[in-house]
Specification:
Mean pLDDT: 90
Radius of gyration: 21 Å
Shape: flat
Oligomer: single chain
Largest sheet: none
Number of helices: 4
Structural class: mainly alpha
Number of domains: 1
Length: 78
Amino acid sequence: MKTTVEIDEGKLERVMRLTGLKTRKEAIDWALTEAERIARIDEIERHPWDALRIQESLESNYDVVTIRNQGVQYRSGS
């Protein structure tokens, strides 16, 4: 989506320099991704899941040990 916004040029340049991102688009996308990640973490901190909600969120037959011990099937590159 294209949009026109006013952006603090100095801040954008600092972000690009600090992150090593080469384009404005990459820097803005990175900043939005980081903002979303931080907002999700904040939301979890405000409304943490209790043990019952975690248990209700998992399938009753979920067994992490069995899953870890299962072999992984890789497709050949041919």
